Amino acid sequence: MRQRFFIIVVLLSPATLRASEVNVDSWSLSSLIHAHGVGFAGDGTGAVANPFHKVDHAALPSPGGATSTVDAEYSASWSGDNFIFLIEMTHAAAGNPLSLVTRSSANIWIVPEVDSTLRIDAEYNYALGPGIRTALMETTIFQENASTGEVFIYGYQEYAVTLGDPPVGQFTLDSPDIPLPAGSRYLLGYRLYLESNSGSASALSHADGFLRFEVVAEPHTLALLVFAAPLLLRKSRRT
Q1: N- to C-terminal Cα distance for the chain?
Q2: 151-176 burial, b for 16+ CB within 10 Å, e for fewer?
């Protein structure tokens, strides 16, 4: 009887009821500038740390006199409460007839220990220079499957091109709740970038914004523990 009562105490402990424990298997964070025929500059990391904070900066002068830049600040933490990953960034891309990209992106592998929910918030403000310029915000979520590989479960993409789209605008994302059943591996991915395919090499496009992933335990997971505990207690008293 003491053993059964001890199990009930564990189920109701604050550490268990707060939210999911999330394990981060690996990640690849990248902030880069790439200009065909001009060069490459970037920064990033593949080393996982909890908590995590890092600031990236890279600059690439263009032959036309303007300097393309990428600045990104990463913050991440996970515990018994939740998993939070936040990136805040600014981009500047000079025109280049041979394609120039400034980009912030990541692939993050996580494993929630209980049934959980993923929420994504994002905002990307852009002002495109003259020529053929593009701004893009994209997120993709995959679940690993032993027999079929990675299975797509959620995606969002929005982009603007100076040919037909307003050169100044904002992308926003407030995702629905995305269920993440316990025990599976999930890939959280995103890209935010500016691209220039033509236009003056001295004219810059600009963008800034943020993207935030948050994983929390599903409410029904906690409710099952709360409702199951009295039943287990009554059963133990009859024994």
Answers
A1: 8
A2: eebbeeebebebeeeeeeeebebeee
Only one residue has tokens 């904002």, namely 170
* pLDDT tens, the chain, 239 aa long: 333 322 222 233 333 333 448 999 999 999 999 998 889 999 999 999 999 999 999 999 988 889 999 999 999 999 876 899 999 999 999 988 778 999 999 999 999 999 999 999 999 999 999 999 999 999 999 999 877 788 999 999 999 999 999 999 999 999 999 999 999 999 999 999 999 999 888 999 999 999 999 999 876 544 444 444 443 344 444 44
CATH number at residue 66: 2.60.120
8 A C-beta contact, residue 233 and residue 137: no
**122 part of a folded domain:** yes
6 assigned to some structural domain = no
Closest CA to 39 of 57, 59, 65: 59
Q: Domain total for the chain?
A: 1
For residues 77 and 84, the answer to whether their CB atoms sit within 8 Å is yes
Structure tokens at 197: 């395919």
The rounded distance, in Å, linking the Cα atoms of 216 and 119 is 8
43 occurs within a structural domain: no
190: nearest Cα among 84, 98, 91, 106: 106
What is the pTM for the complete model shown?
A: 0.82
Residue 237 in domain? no
CA–CA separation, 129 vs 46, rounded Å?
Answer: 33
Tell me the residue range of the domain where 214 lies: 23-38+53-71+82-220
